[in-house]
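Protein fold
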Amino acid sequence: MWCLILLHLKKKGGGNGRYETAKSVNLVRFTIVLFVVLIAAILPTGLKIIQRQLAGPATFAHDGLIQTEIAIEYLLDDRNPYTEDYADTHMADFPGNEPPFTDAPLYHNAYLPFLFISSIPFYWLSQATLGWYDQRFVYLLAFLGSVLLLTQITDPKRPRDKLAIILAFGLNYLGIFYLADGRNDIMVFFFFAAATWLLSLNRVRGASLMIGLAMAIKHQAWFFLPFFILFLLPKQPQWKDGRKLVSQIWPVFLGVLLFVVPFLVWDMHSFIDDTVTYISGSGPNSFPMKGWGFSTFLLVTGLVSDPEAAFPFTLFALLAGLPVLFIMLRRQWRDNSLQNAWLGFLFFSFVFQFFSRFFSDNYVIFTLQMLLVIAFLKPVYATSASEEPLAHNIVG
């Protein structure tokens, strides 16, 4: 029916002006595309949620999702999600997604705090209305928010770009697969999309806050910080520009201060062990080597036999990543656009993570999705930021 309406409007769009205008045709096209994308994302994700409710909490979900839900319950029970282990929870019944299968995740929570803190209001609402909760409720909302934000960053003179970016993002099979599985990359993507939209409106402090919240969710977001700082610098920076830069970028560190520092105070050893030494392999227990990166090559060739063995991945990541960081920052300096800032972030984070202990498949899909932002983003350059308060700077 929608297709027939679209064809009818396209046919009637010209003529003597008695019929729908081209703007109406674009609106109908947009509505159809948005409807298709939402159905394509909601149906498989909803099916997984229902299957999990029928089969049990350790099924039909990624182990990171299961751990995040338990972390919410720990926090609401005044228990530190980084101090506690997960061996006596239903996460212990999780069969595993991919080899190697180890019990190390039962004793470490590698995610940063804002992931589960931001989910608490939705947990309360779901428990009050449904009597149960699934973390994918939050991820679906982040997906919907991302779709809407993507429509705001394209060139208004090219209405078809709006349709193209929604189709490319929303109908990406692997992106939807990982959303239905409960991967949390969509949370970082949502805050990055929000930051991109705010920067396109010259709402620098609001964008800084979004980036800070992303940094309080996942380590990957920290790779954007040097490119963001460079983006805010004028072509010929002077000492007086330092004060202006601080006034623009302080909300980045507000997110870290509010949501990360309290856990450092609560139990610094456990927090660092879970979020730093565990994933880098520099502690007594190490995140198992796996994924599509350098670590899998070492395992397959037999250069490393134990997936939990110590290995200087950080050294290799720095040796490969720092030249890329330098090249991309230099490239951005020559044309200091937001597109180049995001491109530098993608190349640097991709290379650095490729040579880390693990390089998950969903990292590749996240990179492809961010490339869509770069491809369709209207030209954005930093301008003089307003000295108005943050609240006004967010809403305009």
